[in-house]
Amino acid sequence: MAITLTDSAAKHVQNFLSKRGKGVGLRLGVRTSGCSGMAYKLEFADETGVDDLHFVSGGVTVLVDPKSLPYLDGMELDYTREGLNEGFKFNNPNVKDECGCGESFKV
What is the pTM of this model? Predict the structure, then answer.
């Protein structure tokens, strides 16, 4: 089981944590939401939880709660810029369908 970051995503997270001056890594998870059923949660983590699973990719620690891992296993997190838009892109092989607005997904 693994979650990876592209070089671009790892660099963005490292730069943000450096500017922020604190944090142990990136926390990823899922929650029920949207028209397709699930949505991603992404936040910078200041501490690890007792149940957190730890992955290291590109020098960044990625924390995932055990309930979210089956939905995220094998996912690659990218950071892209397209024109004036930039942000994280979730390349998740478990996704079977996404809503039209791109905010939620189904596995």
Answer: 0.84
Distance CA 100, CA 79 (A): 21
Residue 34 has pLDDT above 90, yes or no: no
Q: In the chain, which residue ranges form alpha helices assigned H by DSSP?
A: 7-20, 69-72
* Residue pLDDT, tens place only, 64-90: 999 999 989 999 999 998 888 899 988
Tell the residue number behind the tokens 């309930």, with chain if given.
67
Place of tokens 């890594």: 25
Q: Is-contact 45 25, C-beta < 8 A?
A: yes
Phi-psi region of 53 (alpha: psi -120 to 50; beta: other; left: phi over 0): beta
The contacts of residue 74 (CB under 8 Å, 6+ apart) are 1, 2, 3, 92, 93, 94
- Helix (H, G, I), strand (E, B), or coil: what is residue 67? coil
Tell me what the pLDDT averaged over the chain comes to: 87
DSSP percent split of the chain into helix, strand, coil, nearest 5: 15, 45, 40
